[in-house]
Design brief:
This protein has about 120 residues and is an all-alpha fold. The chain has 5 helices and no strands. The chain is elongated and about 50 Å long.
Length: about 120
Amino acid sequence: MSAPLIIDPQAIENLRALTPGDDDAFLREIVGIFLEDTPKRIAELEQSLSGNDPLRFTRAAHSIKGSSSNLGAMALRAVSERLEHQSKQTGLTGVEPLLAELKTEFASAAAELHQILKL
């Protein structure tokens, strides 16, 4: 099985197709929200981990999964989905390595999105 794409180009094209001729204004707006919101959700993951709040942790992981899926950040989506499932099934024990992986994947996705939009 190959590694998931960092950013699926088809997802970007699908977003561009929603507002053709806007010079990527809509895409830039969506990416901007993602780049602003995801660090907040990552902080929420860390806070809920330190506060041993699996429900809050699961919700934050689910939120990242959804937003990354919308933008085609497939590797980030895959890690957040694993975090969501693990926190639902076994609680927060041992999630630290996946949380570290999620941070790495977010950094990769953010860098690729900057490259795509030449931000």
